[in-house]
Design a protein that fits this description.
- This protein has 571 residues and is an alpha/beta fold.
- The protein folds into three domains: 287 residues, Aldolase class I (TIM Barrel), CATH 3.20.20; 100 residues, no CATH class; 131 residues, Double Stranded RNA Binding Domain (2-Layer Sandwich).
- The chain is 40% helix and 19% strand.
- It contains 18 helices and 14 strands.
- An eight-stranded parallel barrel has the order 1-2-3-4-5-6-7-8, surrounded by eight helices. A three-stranded antiparallel beta sheet has the order 9-10-11. A three-stranded antiparallel beta sheet has the order 12-13-14.
- Helix 3 links the parallel strand 2 and strand 3.
- The structure holds 3-methyl-2-oxobutanoic acid and zinc ion.
- 3-methyl-2-oxobutanoic acid (KIV) binds next to strand 5 and strand 6.
């Protein structure tokens, strides 16, 4: 900012007893999409007929019942598109198209001509009303602006009466309303209502744009409530708002304006539009949805809508754009991941949505839960555990989560990039499942010895195959006895990984070695649960032996070399 440039604060609105702060939005507004007009005029390359039609169809599918389709007096392309819609029968019965025009006679005539044959149409006329436009842009007095506007409205009325087959709706925008003196906005709006001959049955839409967002959203709300209170024939008017996003608060401005009495909102998908854009209707609608208000717009497959939007506008959507960005349902931080995992587990289908860090159920937007948790060097055990469970069905005991997340963390730090579910699975496999050295498990056979469980275990140690025997209370006990190593199993968990006939079992064993501090985990997967357990035990043993010094390892392995009779190796 140049140090010489000075700015002034927007003056407060005199609105004693303002009511909007205490109001709650309980029903959706009427929505108007101006994607094909305000949005389109702001593109590097405005949409051609084909892209406009594609966008129009999508807007109808989303549920928009009022769509501003262009500025037909501005160019032949714009005019022809309106004709294509009407003549091609593309406008659904319950959809009303709108078009914009300036209040100048030739433009109005061309506009009404463009709409010939429409079942219902909104003629949207605008004049700029703020002092800066009156004084510097047009050199007009207030009265001149009123005259021009009223003449335009009268002409529209006259031309419309010449095409009685169409149900006509008038919309008037005092352009730059948010920077216009409120008394003047009221004066010109009241004049328009009279000139149109509006009644409660045939209302005028008075659209109050924040053509440029110049103040905090509460100021806009005050302006809207002021109009709501002061318009002469409020019962014959629909108050509409059209916030732009220059200060980044268009959504807030629209929400507060609805609390202040607005009944209709104009904007664009994902906030497209001049400069910083029009208000984002997707965010606005989904904000309502998260407050339990059905917005009447459907975003059940928001990704498909986003891709069509990008194809039509050639504009990308930011990865952190509310509700739709690629990253908005993703947590990287460990504490967030942990909270999401717990919240998701506690969420019951019949209850109101109440998951930490997620204001909306991604499934409502057709988004999967797959990317909820992503792991980088900031992530904790919760995220790692979540990904392993979601991608492979592996549920790790808590202490194992702590142990394993350390390994994932090291990987993330080494690579400096995100660790995917696939990476985590590879690491889990290498760390816990494929630990075959120094004791390589080959096979085992169970047998009964009286009331006890016996096992014959074949392993390879140092290149030599050994067959060991042991008995115990159960298979694991018996294997430990066969090994002849002072191992104690501290916890044991098993679960099925898949459903159905090809179901495989995962066993996780936590074990301690006498004289060695701490415990170690091992895991095994097999179609047979006992085999899975034996594999888990062997993997855990190998991990344990990797932790001890060479001398100690030799000592323990020597026990395996003692071939003593099975009876001697009793747990
Ligand atoms: O932003 C604006 O004021 C407009 C008007 C033409 C409604 O787009
Ligand atoms: Zn606009």
């Amino acid at each position: 900012m140049s140090p010489a440039t000075r700015y002034r604060a927007f003056p407060p609105i005199d609105l004693p007893g303002r009511r909007w702060p205490a109001r709650v939005i309980t029903s959706p507004p009427a929505w108007l999409s101006t994607d094909l007009r305000d949005g389109n005029q702001a593109l590097f390359e405005p949409m051609g007929a084909e892209r406009k039609l594609r966008m129009f169809r999508m807007l109808c599918d989303i549920g928009f019942r009022e769509i501003e389709v262009g500025f037909p007096s501005a160019s032949k392309t714009e005019f022809d598109f309106v004709r294509t819609l009407i003549e091609g029968g593309h406008i659904p019965e319950d959809v009303t198209i709108g078009v914009l025009t300036q209040a100048r006679e030739p433009l109005i005539r061309r506009t009404i001509e463009a709409l010939r044959g429409a079942r219902r149409a909104i003629v949207h006329v605008y004049t700029a009303t703020s002092p800066v436009f009156r004084e510097f842009v047009f050199g007009m007095q207030r009265a001149d602006v009123v005259d021009m506007t009223v003449s335009g409205v009268r002409l529209i009325r006259e031309l419309c009466s010449g095409q009685p087959g169409t149900e006509w709706v008038l919309e008037y925008s005092p352009e730059t309303f948010s920077a216009t003196e409120l008394e003047f906005s009221r004066e010109i709006c009241d004049a328009v209502v009279d000139a149109w001959g509006a009644t409660p049955q045939r209302k005028v839409i008075l659209n109050l744009p924040a053509t440029v967002e110049v103040a905090t959203p509460n100021v806009y709300a005050d302006q809207v409530e002021w109009m709501d209170r002061h318009l002469a024939r409020r019962d014959s008017v629909i108050i509409s708002v059209h916030p732009h996003n220059d200060r980044g608060t268009a959504v807030a401005a629209a929400e507060l304006a609805l609390m202040a009495g607005a009944e209709r909102v104009e904007g664009c998908l994902f906030g497209n539009g001049e400069r910083t854009g029009n208000v984002d209707l997707v965010t606005l609608a989904l904000n309502l949805r998260t407050q339990g208000v059905d917005p009447g717009l459907r975003f059940a497959d928001i990704n498909a809508i986003a891709r069509t939007y990008e194809a039509c506008t050639q504009l990308p959507i930011h990865p952190r754009h509310p509700y739709v960005g690629d990253l908005v349902f993703t947590a990287f931080s460990g504490s967030h991941q942990d909270a999401i995992r717990k919240g998701m587990a506690a969420q019951r289908p019949a209850d109101c949505w109440n998951v930490p860090y997620l204001p909306i159920d991604p499934a409502d937007l057709g988004r999967t839960y797959d990317s909820l948790v992503r792991v980088n060097s900031q992530s904790g055990k919760g995220g790692v555990a979540y990904l392993l469970e979601m991608s492979r069905g592996v549920v790790m005991p808590r202490r194992m989560q702590v142990e394993f997340s350390g390994a994932v963390q090291r990987l993330a730090e080494t690579t400096g990039s995100e660790v995917t579910a696939e990476d985590i699975w590879r690491l889990f496999t290498a760390e816990y499942l494929e630990r075959t050295e120094p004791v390589h498990y080959i096979e085992h056979h169970l047998f009964e010895r009286g009331a006890r469980q016996g096992v014959r275990l074949t392993v390879v140690v140092g290149g030599t195959q050994r067959v060991l025997e042991g008995t115990g209370n159960g298979p694991i006990d018996a294997v430990i006895a066969a090994l002849g190593i002072p191992v104690e199993v501290q916890s044991y968990e098993e679960r099925s990984l898949n459903q159905g006939a090809d179901s495989r079992a995962l066993a996780i064993v936590e074990m301690a070695l006498q004289g060695v501090t701490g415990s170690t985990f091992g895991a095994g997967i097999d179609a047979n649960i006992v085999t899975a357990s034996v594999r888990a035990l062997m993997a855990g043993l190998n991990r344990m032996l990797a932790r001890v010094g060479a001398e100690e390892r030799r000592h323990f392995l020597a026990a395996l070399a003692v071939p003593g009779p099975a009876a001697e190796r009793v747990a």
